[in-house]
Amino acid sequence: MAAKSNRTRRRRSDKRQLFEVEQIRSQDLTVSQDRQDRLASQIIRLQPKTLNQARLIKSIRANHVTVASAPAGCGKTLVALHEAAWMLEKGAIDQILYTKPIINFREQNGLGFLPGDLDEKVLPLLAPLLDNLEVFMKPGKIRYLLDKGKIKYQPMEHIRGRSLRHTFMIADEFQGISVHGAITVISRIEESSKLVMLGDSKQCDLLLPANALDDALTRLKGAQSVGIVEFTSNDIVRNAFLKDVLMRYDPHPRNN
Prior knowledge:
The protein has 256 residues and is an alpha/beta fold. The chain is built from 10 helices and 6 strands, in the order αααβαβαααββαβαβα.
């Protein structure tokens, strides 16, 4: 009887989760039909592949700040960028700012160590941004938005002192900065902006007692207008074998 009861509860839970995903899929930012048709020609409208992708979308739309922790291959950066691009095209924001730490490997020496002028130094750091934009946006559109300054990249170490209005900021690799660095990032945004902090604690190279991502997951839980989404290895969608490979590197994976 207990086993049957557990199976029934699992089925009900699965149905609730499927219903939640369908709600997210059916929702959209309020846009007129004419504008919807025009946006569709510019941006491929992606649908969430997992429940936590749907929760990430829901949190971004509902909150000023979202913290998302996820293993590699869960689509967290893609989902955040897609929501940002859709809001930009709708006119809900003026710009997308993608930022990440320069030094996220112990053997790296910072931006000044790289050859070339500033544009040449940051070009390799744009790769994750461009890789994800190319999934749902035409190359010509990407180039136009970059040239017009509607999509920008700035190293996280250089963001101090800015005041960001009507901006969708994506702070990637958030496990690569200190707790003090997190304060610098969070304090940049004004009420008209959104901030999505993304990362994977398993890829932290900081020689510190705590990193900004792990700290934010606990410190900001329950804070006003802050959403927390924690992906697990079950959310990996990049390819079929990645989940098994990554689990072999992690003796204590979070699967629930």
